[in-house]
C-alpha cells in the first residue's frame, strides 16, 4: 500500500466559517451569508498537491442543514417514487424544494423509517469543486449529527435511545426505538439548552408506549436538565 493512501484532510463548516485541517496545520475562512462562495477563497495547502489524491473528510454543522424522519408508506415502488415522497416530506416539514437542496438517507436504517438530511445544493457543489481543484477524493461527507450517530451505531443496543448534540447554540436531537428512527428535531436554543432537551424528549416518549419506559440518551456538548423515569445519560466526548 502506498504511504500516501492514509493521508487525509478534514474540512469542517461550523456556524461561522470553514476550517481545513491537515496534520497540525489549520486554515480558516469566515462563511458569511454564503458559505459556498466562501469556500472558493480557501486555499488548499501546497503540500497536498504532492500527495497521491489525499482523502477529504467533510463535516457540515447542523446549522446549515435540515433533518427529518421519513416514514415510508406501504406501496411505494422504485427509486423514483421514493424520491418523490422524500421531496414532498421535506417541502411539507421544512418548506424547501429538493431542486435547491440535496438529500441523503440513512441506508442502514431498520424497518419502515429512515433518517433524512438535506443540504443546499450549492454548498454540496462547492465542496465537490473544492475537492476537484485540490485533486482530492471525498471520503465521509455529511452532517455533524448524522456522522456522530454513525460513529455511535456499533455501540447501540436494541432498546430505546436518543442522541443529543449541542454546538454553537444549536441543538439536534434524534430518538429511536428497536433500531427504528422515531423523531428528530434541530433547533436554535437560548440560555437553557438542557431544559429544551429534557422537555422535547419528555414530550416525545408518551407516543412510543412501554418500549420507551427505559432508554439511554447520548449527549455531546449538553446535559439534560432532567430525565424521564427509567432513562440514563451517556456523556460522549466532542470527537465521538
Topology of this protein?
Elements (H helix, E strand, L loop, with lengths): L7 E6 L3 E6 L2 E6 L4 H5 L15 E6 L5 E6 L6 H17 L6 E5 L7 E8 H13 L3 E7 H9 L7 E8 L2 E8 L2 E9 L4 H12 L10 E6 L10 E5 L5
What is the CATH homology-level superfamily of the largest domain? Protein of unknown function DUF3822, C-terminal domain
Helical content (DSSP H or I, runs of 4+): 10-25%
At the fold tier of CATH, the topology name of the largest domain is Nucleotidyltransferase, domain 5
Cα end-to-end separation = 28 Å
At the first level of CATH, what is the class of the largest domain?
Answer: Alpha Beta
Give the CA-based shape.
globular
H/E element sequence? EEEHEEHEEHEHEEEHEE
Number of strands: 13
Mean of pLDDT: 88
Number of domains: 3
CATH architecture of the largest domain: 2-Layer Sandwich
Description:
With 240 residues, the chain is an alpha/beta fold. It has a 5-stranded mixed β-sheet with strand order 3-2-1-4-8. It folds into 3 domains: 8-62 and 122-142; 64-121; 156-235, 2-Layer Sandwich (Nucleotidyltransferase, domain 5), CATH 3.30.420.260. A hairpin with a 2-residue loop joins strand 2 (17-22) and strand 3 (25-30). The protein is globular. The relative contact order is 0.13. It has helices spanning 35-39, 78-94, 121-133, 144-152, 193-204, and strands at 8-13, 17-22, 25-30, 55-60, 66-71, 101-105, 113-120, 137-143, 160-167, 170-177, 180-188, 215-220, 231-235.
